[in-house]
Tap42 interacting protein
Amino acid sequence: MTKIALGTTREATQPDCIRALIVEFIATFLFVFTGVASAMAAEKLSSGDALLRLVAVAVASAFVVAVMISAGHISGGHLNPAVTLGLLVGGHITVVRSVLYWIDQLVASAAASYLLCYLSGGMAIPVHTLASGVGYTQGVIWEIVLTFSLLFAVYGTMVDPKKGVATGHGPTIIGFVVGANILAGGAFSAASMNPARSFGPALVMGNWTGHWVYWVGPLIGGGLAGFFYEHLFIDRTHTLLSRDEEN
């Protein structure tokens, strides 16, 4: 069974970690900026057409996720505390670096949201909230399922050594999953799948109603997906044997 690596505080001063944190900040900033801006633009231009707004946000999010994961390869392009947690439970990142990533992602989200508030002339920043008739338990389950599917795709297309035909197409596939999940769950739980994406707008608007849903759901979904995929589907024995044969 994969062991979670604690790491050391010295990681924060290592050049590779510093570079990763800078890239992760930039990628997360641009992801949140585009995602939130697309929601604001759709709200402004759609003339009350909720379906048009949903499709616009889903498409924009799918595109920017695919591009930022590719561009942020130095840090792994997590963009999301739930993704970081999913990789942590699989042993792919240390606890210390995970905490640094989480701080990085939240600060980047806040910065992007504050900048959008300024650039839009004080226009309201859309905050993730549950739809009318959707309770907290339902919202948490929505976010668990949607985030589980996201991390399952991350593992299947980017982490699994035997990803096969998905090699090189992981970021695009993950972008598709994000877009599809927004189309599926956007009208119910807002389909955040990402605590950082929800954090920035909530901070700027001072609206924390039900915000905990967007932490509990994604972190549970991401952690479960990482644990189950790593321990049930990745054949580490095969990987080790292949390396021994090469040597």
User: Anything to note?
Assistant: The domain at 9-246 is CATH 1.20.1080.10 (Glycerol uptake facilitator protein). The chain has one domain: 9-246. The radius of gyration is 18 Å.
